[in-house]
Amino acid sequence: MPKHGKNYRKAIEGHDLQLRYGLEEAVAKSLGASFTKFDETVDVAIRLGVDPKYSDQMVRGAVTLPHGLGKSVRVAVFCKGEKQAEARDAGADAVGAEDLVARVKEGWLEFDAAVATPDVMALVGQIGRVLGPRGLMPNAKTGSVTFDVAKVVGELKAGRVEFKVDKAGVLHAPLGKVSFGPEKILGNLKALLETVNRLKPTAAKGTYMVSMAVSTTMGPGFKIDMPQVKKFLEG
Predict the structure, then answer these.
(1) Bridge partners of 160?
(2) Which of 15, 68, 80, 83 is most enclosed, with most CB atoms within 10 A?
(3) What is the rounded distance in angstroms from the CA atom of residue 74 to the CA atom of residue 79?
(4) CB 80 within 8 A of CB 121
């Protein structure tokens, strides 16, 4: 069990971390427990009733958060020809094909998201071992392998979040910054949950969203009362 510092211990005073709260209360408590000097990211962890080792139970997708992420996102686009101009005009930070792949092979990774057109995926595959573990590999399921590079670059800049359930069946996603306040965080959370709901695999049996918790980068996690999630999504 990790030993927490005095600021963390002070932040959880008066809070029962074993209780389950409504979404509004959980988000409010999470923001209120932030104790760092920097503007922390608010995250959600959702345990899903799926077994990701089976491909038909993998949950993977993307959502453009209505209130963004509160940070600038550096986007690299792997493409050729006229698509390079489209990507640059849309605000891409790095654009190229063989030359961009070569830069990554040499160790350059100054970007937060990557997009690729289908015709260069064989090239991008050469750096899959570099991009994959960092969550940067373009993927058709999340819409980052596309000829519509301008649209995707625009979405990424606006706060598009890609997510993927991990081996333990848990999906992690950022919801914005503490400075957003509860209303914007809840708006982003609702957009994420609606998207995750739509992606429920037909092979998944039983309860789909099993448990959920919100936390800030350094703060404690506040568990959510799952029966209230349905009401939140219907509201």
Answers:
(1) 64
(2) 83
(3) 16
(4) no
